Amino acid sequence: MLACLFAPVFVYAADSDNDGLSDEQEAIYHTDPANPDTDGDGYFDGIEVAHDYSPHLAGGKRLNEDDFDHDGLNDWLERWFGSDMGKSDTDGDGFSDYDEVMRGYSPASTTSTQVFVRKVVVDRSQQRLNFYVDGVKIHNFPASTGNPGTPTPDGEYHMMRKVAKKSYVGPGYDLPGVTWNVEFSPMYYIHTAYWHNDFGKRTHSHGCVNLREDDAKVIYEYIDETVPIVVTGETPAGYVVGT
Ligand SMILES: [Ca+2]
Ligand SMILES: [Ca+2]
Ligand SMILES: [Ca+2]
Ligand SMILES: [Ca+2]
Q: What is the Å distance from ligand 2's center to 70 Cα?
């Protein structure tokens, strides 16, 4: 009988509560290392995390539905960008994790170079404006693009200038005091639209991209000349999404 001379060596990471998450991982997820089911929903912390569920929120909530440290970056994104789910300013440089990610900087390092590629995609067929960082969708805002007769032109653009407040005047319209305007092609802007609430449902403009106030403010704040603005998808022929 042959003796097994080279027995495999296993290295076990300590898992005090035997829930599938090592004590080290429990620190990363800010779960209780002495309680296998931190949120008491019947599922072990290790099982939840392995399937992208939140170990902090019961009721089948996903990691991307929890923002444990309330910094604007959900727990799934914190894991993706390597920041601490329990600290709003992981690297302690005075800028929040969310703020750094939105500007293309690493929230886990104080290096002052942009490391993540950003992109805005205006999807005419779905009437959405998506903001990507490192290929991951950070925001998915409902939008209203140009009507079928005056569609938002497709192509790739970059921000030309920002105007905090401006008026839009043309044949049959006179709209003063419009906020958060980002010009991406001559006479074509991303901006708010206080005269309707059809964002994400239907087209509504002469070619500009309309957003809700809060959403337009985010784009206004974080976009710069380095961020490509891609307009894609088909303009709904019947104005409404899906037509
Ligand atoms: Ca554990
Ligand atoms: Ca649980
Ligand atoms: Ca967070
Ligand atoms: Ca920071």
A: 20
- Same domain for 178 and 160, yes or no, is yes
The predicted model scores a pTM of 0.91
Tens-place pLDDT, residues 147-195:
999 999 999 999 999 999 999 999 889 999 999 999 999 999 999 999 9
Query: Considering the domain boundaries, does residue 223 fall inside one?
Result: yes
One-letter amino acid of 219: I
Note whether residue 207 is domain-resident.
Answer: yes
Ligand closest to the CA atom of residue 56? 2
Looking at the CA of 94, name the nearest ligand: 4
Same domain, 56 and 36: yes
CB–CB of 229/156 below 8 Å? yes
Q: How far is the CA of 79 from the centre of ligand 3 (A)?
A: 9
Kindly calculate the radius of gyration of the chain based on its CA atoms and give it in whole angstroms. Answer: 23
Give distance in angstroms: CA of 12 to centre of ligand 1.
Answer: 12
Give the model confidence (pLDDT) of 71-103 as tens digits. 999 999 999 999 999 999 999 999 999 999 999
Based on the fold, state whether residues 132 and 192 are members of the same structural domain: yes
Ligand nearest the Cα atom of residue 84 = 3
Confirm whether 147 is domain-assigned.
Answer: yes
Ligand 1 centroid from CA 122, angstroms: 43
Residues 224 and 122 reside in one and the same domain = yes
Q: Which of these, 233, 96, 75, lies nearest to 152 by C-alpha position?
A: 233
Residues 161 and 106 in one domain: no
Query: Which domain range does residue 93 map to?
Result: 80-114
60 CA distance to ligand 2 middle (Å): 9
In the 8-state DSSP scheme, what is residue 223?
-
Q: Are 117 and 104 in contact (CB under 8 A)?
A: yes
CA of 139 to the centre of ligand 2 (A): 27
